[in-house]
């Protein structure tokens, strides 16, 4: 059995019809690869189509305000991808006259482009013989060759990269890389892989040893941190509210949110943090406070779980930084806030 030939034959018969497979334009391929990091195709596809519609070229993306980019990205998560995407677009448009780097080595210099993404773009757009290794590739290779080295270890990353490079069809790296990833997504799935019709089953060591469910091996993640957020949904008689932009290196940098008070543990309606903290945000004035949700909304990220309460805060006045409630929908916000806005229909909420 020639591994690459079997895989490419399977791919040509079974590949999904996806818009970025209709072109070798590096802008389209780069955009799709960045969006599909940590994201399923079913979730990422509508975002890809919206981005291409809003920004048909790298120049359009480069010239867009960051807030517009983040707003279109809203709900896709891992927002550093969007910020890096925007920065790289500006670099390609302004410094490279809109021409993308044409080699793996040069592509890796783009912000937000790591080894996997650079390999994907280089092989698909320029047919450069460099292997890709993503979650699907780890799964296929670990099962077929019965590799127990943890895929998220230094040794595992090195071993699987070498194995993928050894198997690579150097005459057609574009088809081989896409075939290997697609095979992991459709045939050699994480759960319930379709082994009975698998064209590689005769040589699959995990199938022979009844180890399909045991592979790939992954080291346990670090303990998830718990955080407790209290959002102040401030409103005044003139139908204004407050939003603040997150800055720094933490989560959601560049997105907007209601004024936030983070506490070390959950708090009840009768035990809200001292007025001093609220006065730092709203100044000294008479306020009425009401808890919106008794049960916290739990928002799970890969490295932290956020337990959130929303508090309605009626204020006598909001300063010049106040914005009309009807305009809140125009700001890029974390999905946690977006869900709250949709649930409460804030624009029509009775204040």
TrEMBL record:
GO terms for molecular function: 4 iron, 4 sulfur cluster binding; 8-oxo-7,8-dihydroguanine DNA N-glycosylase activity; adenine/guanine mispair binding; metal ion binding; oxidized purine DNA binding; purine-specific mismatch base pair DNA N-glycosylase activity. One of its GO terms (biological process) is mismatch repair. It is an enzyme of class 3 (hydrolase). Residues 35-186 form the HhH-GPD domain. It holds the Pfam family NUDIX_4. It comes from the Bacteria. Its cofactor is [4Fe-4S] cluster. Keywords: 4Fe-4S, DNA damage, DNA repair, Glycosidase, Hydrolase, Iron, Iron-sulfur, Metal-binding. It catalyses: Hydrolyzes free adenine bases from 7,8-dihydro-8-oxoguanine:adenine mismatched double-stranded DNA, leaving an apurinic site. Binds 1 [4Fe-4S] cluster. Its EC number is 3.2.2.31. The keyword 4Fe-4S applies. InterPro entries: A/G_AdeGlyc_MutY, DNA_glycosylase, HhH-GPD_domain, HhH_base_excis_C, HhH_motif, MIG/MutY, MutY_C, NUDIX_hydrolase-like_dom_sf. Belongs to the Nth/MutY family. PANTHER family: ADENINE DNA GLYCOSYLASE. Adenine glycosylase active on G-A mispairs. MutY also corrects error-prone DNA synthesis past GO lesions which are due to the oxidatively damaged form of guanine: 7,8-dihydro-8-oxoguanine (8-oxo-dGTP). This is Adenine DNA glycosylase. It comes from Salegentibacter holothuriorum.
């Amino acid at each position: 059995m020639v591994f690459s030939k079997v895989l490419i034959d399977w791919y040509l018969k079974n590949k999904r019809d996806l818009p970025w497979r209709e072109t070798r334009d590096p802008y389209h391929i780069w955009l799709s690869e960045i969006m599909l990091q940590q994201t399923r195709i079913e979730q990422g596809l509508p975002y890809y189509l919206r981005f291409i519609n809003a920004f048909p070229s790298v120049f359009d993306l480069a010239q867009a305000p960051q807030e517009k980019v983040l707003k279109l990205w809203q709900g896709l998560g891992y927002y550093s991808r969007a910020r890096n995407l925007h920065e790289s677009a500006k670099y390609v448009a302004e410094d490279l006259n809109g021409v993308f780097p044409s080699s793996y080595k040069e592509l890796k210099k783009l912000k937000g482009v790591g080894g996997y993404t650079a390999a994907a773009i280089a092989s698909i757009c320029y047919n450069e013989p460099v292997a890709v290794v993503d979650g699907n590739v780890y799964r296929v290779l670990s099962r077929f060759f019965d590799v127990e080295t943890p895929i998220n270890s230094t040794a595992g990353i090195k071993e699987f990269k070498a194995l993928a490079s050894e198997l690579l069809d150097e005459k057609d790296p574009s088809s081989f890389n896409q075939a290997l990833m697609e095979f992991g997504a459709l045939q050699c799935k994480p759960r319930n892989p379709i082994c009975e019709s698998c064209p590689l089953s005769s040589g699959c060591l995990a199938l022979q040893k009844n180890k399909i469910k045991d592979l790939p091996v992954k080291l346990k993640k670090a303990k998830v941190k718990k955080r407790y957020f209290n959002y102040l949904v401030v409103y005044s008689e003139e139908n204004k509210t407050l939003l603040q932009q997150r800055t720094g290196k933490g989560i959601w940098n560049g997105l907007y949110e209601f004024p936030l008070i983070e506490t070390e543990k959950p708090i009840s309606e009768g035990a809200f943090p001292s007025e001093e903290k609220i006065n730092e945000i709203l100044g000294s004035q008479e306020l009425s406070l009401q808890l919106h949700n008794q049960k916290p909304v739990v928002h799970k990220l890969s490295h932290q779980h956020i337990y959130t309460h929303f508090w309605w805060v009626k204020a006598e006045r909001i300063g010049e930084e106040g914005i009309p409630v009807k305009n809140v929908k125009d700001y890029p916000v974390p999905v946690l806030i977006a869900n709250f806005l949709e649930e409460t229909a804030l624009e029509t909420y009775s204040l």
